[in-house]
Write a structure and sequence with these properties.
This protein is an alpha/beta fold and 610 residues long. Among the domains are: 123 residues, no CATH class; 146 residues, Alpha-Beta Plaits (2-Layer Sandwich); 153 residues, no CATH class. It is built from 22 helices and 19 strands.
């Protein structure tokens, strides 16, 4: 594992698909998804919605079951769906800062208590109204159900938070944290932050010195992991090359980029974590231009791909959660679209002028979608780089499904220092066709060959996302890549033939959910593929014995790392959720897991609920 330092909080700016600014594209599994929020003054009062529930036939049975996460009586699920959606939206938007469900043996010995802390009365009243709608359902099943709104001062709220935190730390008759049910969440430390900076209208330099960015810098200078950096932390724990490690390699050698390291960071960072944004301009932009896409990959969703809208409605309904709130879909000329298209932020945005002003300092433009090669505005920006004479010092990077490369892209790319493309290909033949619907393998093969022989300075790599669907297939893709003898794809002498990334979300597609016996077979399959991998590497004529040995060791290390990550935790309780949602997609798309990936199906079919 490398030192806990990354240049990104100093020299990078990153957006989500909706334009929200964040510390890094990898922060999607970290605290608050790494979003950069504006500072707001603390509020004098906070509002609580408290609910007391007692099961009259047997209060203690209900309390025992509730604390164990079990149901006491069956109640219609649809009665609570909208309430759960409201809780999730309040959690994401930070209009609610705390929620807990616990038992107080002294004050309310026969009741379970739920409390939710809101920043404003209007939000508390809306949630109170929703809980009142549920009151009738509870009473029909012989429950007592009372709910009320109370108000506390800032000091009293801090005291309440402290007491609940102590109760939670001691595991004292309180329900644990769950990102699925949100029965407990603690966001009180966000009481002094407000709306997220959005690239549509934000002053980018101002956003670079917000409190979260300053604290991340201070943490890294002390060798600590910032709260937003959970993804890299987890990957490094499995010895997987995280984005942090890639960025340190990128900015440490002075080969293609100016040098930026921890020593420089110490010199330029003030005691409060701030930096002089004029003296230290942004050098790398990581920009997600909306969700326009021509594929609807299984691990994505409507925030990542506009092609997902129809399937979203069929699977979950016309609304879904985004960091900017609940998005509602409506049908326009036979196709679903958001009522408020938050993903078109870049069409009328102040970001373009700010990028042009900083063009002489830009060293790297990482542009993502959706499918980035479909976004017209980015080509206009790249043409301005060419016209201004700045293209020669800028490296362009795309994460692309490489299904549709327009002529305009080929012509523009020739002018830049280097074109880097991570091809989002998660397997070969039927595996990738199943994961990245409606992709066709024959089209991918043609574009791989076109990129591998194109005019210009290219650095290309395969960037599979490894989850439950392709975990077993992973070494087979490595073998396929070794068999092709590419000119440009993953051709660095010692690096593995693919540059993989673990799938973290959605959890129901994470490889950690595989049952233990399936994990054992997959681990054995990885071992059985190593002789074939060694044989293919030894056949290569463009490397000496030492280079072949190093390539072999880094390649099998990659398999070992993913085996370690897969076996780190047992999430097999999510297999029913996998079957529920994956089967729905199969029905919608007229596909079958057993036909597309039969080896996986045979490993897990016994876990399918009857």
């Amino acid at each position: 594992m490398t030192e806990t330092f990354c240049p990104m909080p100093w020299i990078t700016q990153s957006t989500r698909n909706n334009g929200d600014l964040r510390i890094c594209c990898q922060a999607n599994v970290g605290e608050d998804q790494g979003l950069i929020r504006k500072t707001v003054p603390g509020k004098p009062f906070y509002y609580f919605v408290r609910t007391l529930v007692k099961y009259n036939p047997s209060p203690w049975l209900y309390i025992h079951n509730r604390l164990k996460g079990k149901q006491t009586t069956e109640m219609a699920n649809d009665a609570f769906h909208s309430g759960r959606e409201m809780i999730k939206n309040a959690w994401v938007s930070k209009t609610a800062l705390f929620r807990c469900t616990y038992h107080d043996e002294v004050s309310w010995p026969e009741h379970m208590i739920s409390e939710m802390l809101f920043t404003a009365l209007e939000h508390a009243e809306a949630y109170y109204k929703k809980t009142k709608e549920q009151q009738k359902v509870f009473k029909e099943h012989d429950y007592e159900f009372e709910t009320e709104i109370t108000m506390k001062t800032f000091a009293d709220t801090e005291e309440w938070v402290s007491k609940i935190r102590e109760k939670y730390k001691a595991k004292e008759r309180i329900i644990g944290e769950s990102r699925l049910t949100l029965t407990y969440f603690d966001q009180w430390d966000f009481h002094s932050v407000g709306d997220v900076y959005n690239a549509q209208d934000a002053n980018l330099n101002e956003a670079r010195n917000n409190p979260m960015m300053k604290q991340a810098r201070l943490d890294m200078l002390e060798g600590k992991w910032p709260e937003a950096c959970t993804r890299c932390k987890n990957e490094e724990a499995a010895d997987i090359r995280s984005r942090m490690r890639y960025e340190n390699e990128r900015w440490s050698t002075g080969k293609n980029y100016s040098v930026f390291n921890k020593e420089i960071a110490k010199e330029i960072t003030a005691s409060d974590g701030s930096i002089d944004t004029t003296a230290i301009p942004t050098r790398l932009y990581d920009l997600r231009f909306g969700n326009l896409c021509n594929l609807k990959c299984r691990m994505c969703g409507p925030t990542d791909s506009s092609m997902w809208y129809e399937d979203q409605v069929k699977m979950f309904g016309e609304t879904y959660q985004d960091t900017r709130g609940i998005v509602k879909l409506t049908k326009v000329k036979g196709k679903y679209k958001p009522v408020d298209d938050i993903y078109g932020w870049y069409e009328k945005s102040s970001i373009w002028g700010q990028l042009e002003d900083n063009m002489p300092n830009i060293e790297h433009l990482h542009m993502v979608g959706g499918e980035p090669l479909m976004i017209n505005q980015q080509y206009e920006l790249l043409q301005k780089c060419i016209d201004s004479g700045e293209a020669h010092h800028i490296i362009i990077e795309h994460n692309s499904n490489i299904t549709n490369i327009p002529d305009r892209a080929w012509n523009i790319w020739k002018h830049f220092k280097e074109i880097q493309i991570g091809a989002s290909i998660d397997g070969v033949e039927s595996v990738v066709e199943y994961i990245r619907h409606p992709i066709k393998w024959s089209m991918i093969e043609r574009n791989i060959q076109a990129l591998d022989t194109a005019e210009g300075n290219y650095k290309l790599w395969f960037a599979p996302t490894i989850g439950i669907l392709n975990a077993r297939h992973f070494p087979d893709m490595i073998i396929w890549a070794l068999e092709q003898n590419f000119n440009r794809f993953n051709v660095e002498t010692w690096k593995p033939p693919v540059t993989a990334h673990p799938l973290h979300h959605p959890k129901w597609l994470n490889m950690k959910i595989l049952p233990l016996e399936a994990k054992k077979e997959i681990t054995e399959h990885y071992e059985s593929c190593k002789p074939r991998i060694r044989n293919l590497i030894n056949r290569k004529t463009d490397r000496g014995p030492g280079q072949k040995q190093k390539l072999y060791h880094t390649t099998i290390a990659l398999l070992d790392q993913y085996s370690t990550l897969m076996n780190q935790e047992d999430w097999s309780d999510l297999m029913p959720k996998f079957w529920e949602l994956n089967s729905k997609l199969d029905d919608i798309r007229d596909e079958k897991l057993q036909d597309a990936i039969p080896e996986l199906y045979e490993l897990i079919k016994h876990t399918r609920p009857s």
